[in-house]
Design a protein that fits this description.
This protein has 79 residues and is of the alpha+beta class. It has helices at 41-54, 68-72; strands at residues 11-17, 33-38, 61-67.
């Protein structure tokens, strides 16, 4: 039997250089950094934080956490 705490809530972490600091359009999609897919928000946030801190000197570099589980089952808006 699967409980709520056993559910995989997949999160995708990726980043790249933005064209504009106020937008979310990337300069070069072929250079996106695909960090990975993580089983929960906590591990995705840890990976995101590590990448974001490693690229802090480049103001145009941004990393994002996408909630894949929301795309797979949009009726459940769990974190």
């Amino acid at each position: 039997m699967t409980t709520d705490s056993d559910k995989q809530l997949l999160h995708f972490v990726f980043g790249g250089e933005l064209k504009d600091l106020n937008g979310t359009e990337f300069r070069d999609l072929s250079k996106l950094d695909i960090v990975g897919i993580f089983p929960d928000y906590a591990s995705a946030e840890k990976a995101w934080r590590s990448k974001a801190q490693a690229t802090v000197d480049n103001a145009h570099m941004r990393y994002f956490v996408a909630h894949l589980h929301r795309l797979l089952d949009p009726a459940k808006g769990e974190r």
